[in-house]
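Design job #97: recover the sequence.
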């Protein structure tokens, strides 16, 4: 059975461009409940650790630099079929290929600066949620 939680970040580009409110509205309107949320800036070391799985990819350095370039909103979201439904809501990694109405289509400018993160599996949702939130920070 699919899990009920996923992890998201509103990335530095979307924060800088003033899209926090609009993105949270789309997330809540789509039926996700916020279980945990914080506004933080990751250090390059933290961003590097979060994206460790991409260490060998050519864009890793750029990704770490971007994700530590300004504050983000990190959140744990709850809904039936959370991981898959959230990936549908955010759209393809490359906003040029994202479906109309998706968060990345609406608010992202490039494949590197693509407005939001969404976990790609139930297992990674747990790992990523645990990276950012303690038990006491979840409601
Ligand atoms: P997603 O965020 O859709 O799960 P991913 O896990 O493949 O995509 O990559 C993680 C992030 O790395 C992605 O959100 C933006 C960046 N990225 C991916 N492919 C890239 C590329 N070809 N050039 C630059 N950045 C890229
Ligand atoms: Mg991914």
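Job complete. Output follows.
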């Amino acid at each position: 059975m699919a899990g009920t939680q996923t992890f998201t970040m509103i990335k530095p580009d979307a924060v800088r461009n003033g899209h926090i409110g609009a993105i949270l509205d789309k997330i809540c309107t789509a039926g996700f409940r916020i279980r945990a949320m914080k506004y933080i800036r990751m250090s390059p070391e933290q961003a590097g650790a979060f994206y460790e799985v991409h260490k060998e990819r050519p864009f890793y350095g750029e990704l770490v630099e971007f994700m530590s370039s300004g504050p983000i909103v990190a959140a744990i979201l709850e809904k039936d079929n959370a991981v898959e439904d959230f990936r549908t809501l955010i759209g393809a990694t490359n906003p040029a290929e994202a479906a109309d109405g998706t968060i990345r289509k609406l608010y992202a400018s490039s494949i590197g600066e693509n407005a939001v993160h969404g976990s790609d599996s139930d297992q990674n949702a747990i790992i990523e949620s645990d990276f950012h939130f303690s038990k006491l920070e979840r409601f």
